[in-house]
Structure formats: C-alpha cells, structure tokens
Known about the structure:
The protein has 2 domains: 4-109 and 146-195, no CATH class; 112-142, no CATH class. Helices cover 55% and strands 20% of the residues. It contains 6 helices and 8 strands, in the order E-H-H-E-E-E-E-E-E-H-H-H-E-H. Strand 2 (60-63) and strand 3 form a beta hairpin. The protein is globular and about 65 Å long.
Amino acid sequence: MKNQTFRSKVGWVFGWAWIVFAAWNTWDLIAHGSMPSALIAGAVLGVITLVVFLLALRPAIVAEQGGVRVRNPLRNAYVPWNAVGDVHVTHSIIIEAGHTTIRCWTPQATARERARATARAGRTAKTQQTMTPGERAAAEAVAGRTHADFVAQQLSDMSQTRSGDSTGETAVTWSPSALAAVAATVVLVVVTVILA
Length: 196
C-alpha cells in the first residue's frame, strides 16, 4: 500500500520556491561575489534556508502501512495503527497514543481557515433546498471542516481499518536530517564569523 502524506500545501510551495531562489543566489555569489561580503550573504542565505527547511518543507504526517509517522521540525514520531487513540484538532492535530501525546506541526487549522469553514457551512445550509441529494451529502460532509479536521478524520478512520497491519512501537526521536542541517548551518556561520 502506498504511503499517504499530509502537509501544508502553501508551506510546501513556498519552501521549494525559496530553495530555487537560494540556489540561484548561491550560484551568483560563487560566480560573481567578492569576499567577505559573499561569505556573509551566503551565511544569511544558509540560515534562512535552514528555517525554511525546518518549518515549511520537513513537517508532514505520513500514513504508512503499519502506522503513522509525524515529522515535526526537529523530531520524528511513529505510532502503530493499533496504538492510535484519540485524534483531534485544536489549532493543530493531536494524536493520543497511550501516555504519549503527539502534536503535529502541519496541517494546522488557523483562525481564518476556521472562520471560512464556518461561513461555508452557513452558505451550504441556506442553499440545500436547491441541491440534489448527492450534492447535499457532499456539502454536508465538508461543511464547517478545515483541512486539519479532514486529516484528523482520515487518521482516525485509518487507525480503525488498519489496526491489524500495525508494525513497530510508539517512538519519539530526534530527526537526524534536521540535526545535520542545523549542524551544517552552525558550521557555516562559525566559518563566516572567523573569516569575515
């Protein structure tokens, strides 16, 4: 079965746009820059790229065959399907797994998105008289729900239907890729301070 990934689409697009921008500027600094200003600009690009990677590109919820994997900025969490308890949404998705509570970085339900969903539910209620039964059922299914609400419902449903396929144990660990990115950026900044 194919893994299903849930994340902020806006963050993902912004993150890759920044990566392209940073790569172009890095090439320009290497080709046309002069020391030490090119090194300082490169360090600034590196720090901003680290922040974009950690906050926009890395966070995701991955529904795997045996469980759900949550990638937050610096940590990874894995919960097998049979250990998933309550999944609910405050401003973020929260997965309860026994004594472990995992707060997912993305997708989040912002106040603006929540207000739009509520307004959409009000408009749907007013126009239901003119809808066919199929349109009415579809409108009721999404009325008042945000993307985070939809993802939380999907995870709850998967935990019930896939509990027999569960593998592994609940674990929350530091992310090697995130820590490596932080370390590389720190080295770049230190080298810049020493040489500039």
